[in-house]
Design a protein that fits this description.
Helices cover about 40% and strands about 15% of the residues. By secondary structure, the chain is of the alpha/beta class. It has a single domain, classed as Alanine racemase (TIM Barrel), CATH 3.20.20. It has an eight-stranded parallel sheet. Strand 3, helix 4 and strand 4 form a beta-alpha-beta unit. The two termini are about 30 Å apart. Bound molecules: pyridoxal-5'-phosphate (PLP). The site of pyridoxal-5'-phosphate has 16 residues, from strand 8 and helix 10.
């Protein structure tokens, strides 16, 4: 099926849910992205800074770009002028740098805390305690140019549905806890970014508000990028 047809199917399926679709375009060409764009998709996710910046420069300016992969502090400055949402904040040090670069751009950058939920040691993310520690820190209290709008998680790469369901449930419970403890009055803290091509249905059932879908839209990648990232 074509990219446009894949998108149309997916959007039909998502129709009744309040879930935002992030089209994950890593490794895909500008032509392929334009095919999705012309079919109405305006939100795209990338996991590598250089690739993201190249695409941002060449593609239409009304695209909303999300960074979904691990971000090194020394690269924050390249995306700070335009990034809409960083899904992958996994340390206080990184958040401090995002705040600093956002200030230079006179922007407030929305961020998600990436939480470690998978049963694999290859994935980045904060543990529950680390997330709380970050939110209690004096450094965070003083930040004026970032806004934490929710959490993100990557489930284990497994076909075992019960495990996926448990991991997504865990993230939802954690989100609810953080909301109660730190963001009770903040309407903007509302996002749970969870679910990819293989598991988005389960993620939605467990309360996802944003799914990050690549291969279901664009077809499979030669090497899954996130595996060597
Ligand atoms: C690549 C990637 C996705 C999309 O993966 P698909 O299986 O192609 O849908 C989602 N989230 C992250 C963090 C990724 O790196």
């Amino acid at each position: 099926m074509s990219i446009a047809a894949n998108l149309s199917e997916l959007n039909k399926e998502l129709g009744s849910y309040n879930v935002k679709l992030i089209a994950v375009s890593k490794t895909k060409s500008n032509e392929e992205i334009m095919e999705a764009y012309n079919a109405g998709q305006k939100v795209f996710g990338e996991n590598q800074v250089q690739e993201l910046v190249d695409k941002y420069e060449k593609l239409p300016k009304d695209i909303e770009w999300h960074l979904i992969g691990h971000l090194q502090t020394n690269k924050v400055k390249y995306i700070a002028p335009f990034i809409s949402l960083i899904h992958s904040v996994d340390s206080l040090k990184l958040l401090i740098e995002i705040n600093k670069q956002a200030a230079k751009q006179n922007r407030i950058i929305d961020c998600l805390l990436q939480i470690y939920i998978a049963d694999e040691d290859t994935k980045y993310g904060l543990g529950y305690d680390e997330a709380i520690e970050l939110l209690r820190s004096e450094e965070y209290a003083e930040m004026k140019n970032i806004r934490i709008t929710g959490v993100m998680g990557i489930a284990t790469n497994t076909g075992v549905e019960k495990q996926l369901r448990d991991e997504f449930y865990e993230l939802k419970v954690l989100f609810d806890g953080l909301k109660q403890s730190f963001f009770r009055k903040d309407d903007y803290f509302k996002e749970i970014s969870m679910g990819m091509s293989a598991d988005y249905k389960i993620a939605i059932e467990q309360g996802s508000t944003m799914i990050r879908v690549g291969s279901t839209i664009f077809g499979s990648r030669i090497t899954p990028h996130w595996k060597n990232n």
